[in-house]
Amino acid sequence: MKVCNHCLKEKDENEFNWRYKALGVRNKTCKDCQPVFNKIYYEGDAKKKHLKQVKERTAVAREAAREHVYEYLLHHPSELCGEADPRVLEFHHVSEKDMAIINKYTSHKNWMAFLKLACVDILLQRIFG
């Protein structure tokens, strides 16, 4: 038996939707209360507040990523020509491009294993001959 965090009634486990089925974790809100909660949340001020918070967190995360990448560029010259000016350095995919660089940055601890640094001139020569 489990207690719903909205109606505070004790209910059977099966009356709670899965949160993470693979882990065997169920929601804290029962199936009866969940639609009511969703309607209130997504139609009220909470949705606006949530979207504002998401936008703010995204902006902070992007700025941190930019700073991290810029610091990396300051201390790592191009692997192809030795150029050290971060204003002309770009990342070049080592193998087949399967996702954007920012996605690699956020989803892989060892994100640089997928990339090489090259100056823009070298990349343009490789692309256009």
N- and C-termini, Cα separation: 69 Å
Quick one: overall form? elongated
* Beta strand %: 15-25%
Q: What percentage of residues falls in helices of 4 or more residues?
A: 40-55%
Which H/E pattern describes the elements?
EEEEHHEHEH
Q: Biggest sheet: strands, sense, closure?
A: 2 strands, antiparallel
The overall pLDDT, averaged over residues, is: 81
> Which consecutive residue ranges, at least 5 long each, have pLDDT under 50?
none
Number of helices: 4
Rounded to the nearest angstrom, the radius of gyration is 24 Å
Instruction: Tell me the domain tally.
Output: 2
Strand order of the largest sheet: 1-2
Tally of DSSP β-strands: 6
Structural class: alpha+beta
